Amino acid sequence: MSTAAPLVAEAAASVRTAPPPCTWRSWPLAERGWRRCLLPGAILAAAVTVGLSTGRPDWAVVSVVLLAIAAWRYFVPIVYELGTLGITQQVFSRQRRLPWRSIGGYEIRSSGVFLSPHAERGPLDAFGGHFLPWCDHEDEVLASVEFYLAGHRR
User: Fold this and answer.
1) At CA 22, angle to CA 154 and CA 77, rounded to 5?
2) Which of 14, 51, 85, 122 could be joined to 60 by an S-S link, Cβ 3.0–4.6 Å?
3) Domain boundaries, the chain
4) What's the mean per-residue pLDDT of the chain?
5) Which residues neighbour 74 within 8 Å (Cβ) at sequence distance 6 or greater?
């Protein structure tokens, strides 16, 4: 009997397999219960403050528009998919893919994972990174991130 057969079986057992693709939708405005009113309320309060302090309603409208644009991910449903090619983000009919190789590091947060293009933490990381909310898919997202970004955790 050959001794090569048990060695091949052991090697095959030690090979890590990629987690299955994971797809989910993130839409904070529709998912957060009573807390979903906090951000729109803050935007409205900022607009009222701007309008009353300047006496110009047009500036209040501008402030609402600018704050809503800055917080667009809150108001629009986004579909995320994690697979072998990377992270795909779909908003309406537009898709954007973030390849795994473009991610230098990641940090696990309370409601998702922050992905950074740099391996070292810097003062401006929040502006160049991407936050990946996991909603109800924490286990699947963590399995994919830890598999594809093994050794990149900060």
Assistant:
1) 90
2) 51
3) 26-76, 79-154
4) 88
5) 28, 29, 39
